[in-house]
Specification:
2 domains; about 350 residues; 17 strands; three-stranded mixed beta sheet; about 50% strand; Alpha-Beta Plaits; DUF1207; signal; mainly beta; DUF1207 domain-containing protein; twelve-stranded antiparallel barrel; Outer membrane phospholipase (ompla), Chain C
Length: about 350
């Protein structure tokens, strides 16, 4: 199995979707121009008396010089294609950025194709290993949950939170869909953003366990894989693209002879223009390539690819992603970290 197969299949999927889609929803540049016209012509605001930023249909308006910010927010929210409007009003002192519990702003967007990013998903895949070919499914439960942060009206700032994930691998060819491997992660991420640059510093723990049925039927040699790691990533937005890079260092690990270092990088495409499929439902194509390289594996590069379509709705932060998933490299499934594998499959992810 070659990793370029999902690329070609993904391009075909996107081309087919584009061929039948309805006209595209307004992009950010159009929305910014429309909003400026509303503020200046309808409300009589002077150019330069406000600051407006638009990203993926979300507007951030600094209106501290005006006392009719509520009317501006209502007018902007009524524009078709606008998902959310955040306003800094005259009642807020300039330069003040109060702390906030449980912020909802996403400062560092989770990697699209990282197989160990906490998320809710299910993916059915055909695996090629050194000893077998078989159908497996991975099911994931997890999320990043901001607890406290300081974020200004331009979307810049920081927050700290908790994250957790469960990644279960099941054998679809077994009578009872036996659990093969389960990886558990829990961590504390610190995320930040300044303009187009964002980052994440995360201290986290991972432990990996084999399923009972798999232990009984296959009698494998067990590896007690458990570690604490410090991860650092920096990303830069080049809309509609994003690049990121960084790495990890293992602080404590078992087995104790594991090499400590890992390098991590990736590139993503996420369409800035949503296409209206049916009234109230939009779609936008995406693609992500995630690369990891471990000292433990002599810096061999593990490649993870996702290509697909995200479906969402105006004024909603929830979404659903359908993707073609491809992978080649050392296994990302904890107990089998020393095995070389490849897979190709279909995935569904839920953004909640």
């Amino acid at each position: 199995m070659r990793i370029h197969n999902p690329i070609l299949a993904g391009l075909a999927l996107l081309a087919g979707t584009a061929a039948v889609a309805a006209p595209a929803a307004p992009n950010d540049a159009y929305l910014a121009g429309y909003a400026a016209a509303v503020l200046e012509q309808r409300l009589g605001w002077q150019p330069g008396s406000y600051t407006l930023d638009v990203s993926e249909g979300r507007m951030r308006l600094d209106a501290r010089e005006h006392d009719d910010a509520a009317a501006a927010q209502e007018a902007l929210a009524a524009i078709g294609g606008v998902r959310k409007v955040r306003v800094a009003s005259a009642s807020e002192p300039a330069g003040s950025t109060p702390g906030r519990w449980f912020p909802t702003t996403e400062l560092f967007r989770p990697s699209l194709a990282d197989p160990k990013e906490p998320r809710f998903f299910v993916s059915s895949r055909h695996y090629d290993t050194s000893t077998d070919t078989l159908w497996l499914a991975e099911v994931g439960y997890g999320a990043n949950f901001p607890v406290y942060g300081r974020i200004d009206e331009a979307g810049n700032g920081w927050n700290v939170g908790i994250s957790g994930g469960l990644f279960g691998l099941f054998n679809l060819e077994a009578d009872s869909f036996d659990l093969i491997n389960a990886d558990y992660t829990v961590g504390m991420p610190l995320t930040w953003r300044q303009g187009n640059t964002s980052g994440r510093l995360r201290l986290y723990h991972q432990s990996s366990h084999l399923g009972d049925e798999f232990l009984l039927n296959a009698a494998p040699e067990r590896v007690n894989l458990s570690f604490e790691a410090l991860e650092g990533l920096i990303a830069y937005d080049l809309t509609p693209f994003r690049i990121y890079g960084g790495g990890e260092v293992l602080l404590h690990r078992e087995p104790a002879d594991l090499d400590r270092l890992m390098a991590h990088a990736g590139i993503e495409y996420f369409s800035a223009t949503a296409t209206t499929l049916v009234p109230g439902l939009r779609g936008r194509p995406f693609a992500g390539l995630d690369l990891k390289s471990y000292a433990e594996h002599d810096w061999s590069i593990d490649r993870s690819l996702k290509v697909g379509m995200q479906f969402d709705a105006p004024h909603s932060d929830h979404f659903l992603r359908l993707s073609i998933d491809g992978y080649r490299g050392y296994s990302p499934h904890g107990q089998f970290y020393d095995d070389r594998i490849s897979y190709l499959g279909l995935g569904v992810m839920f953004g909640i």
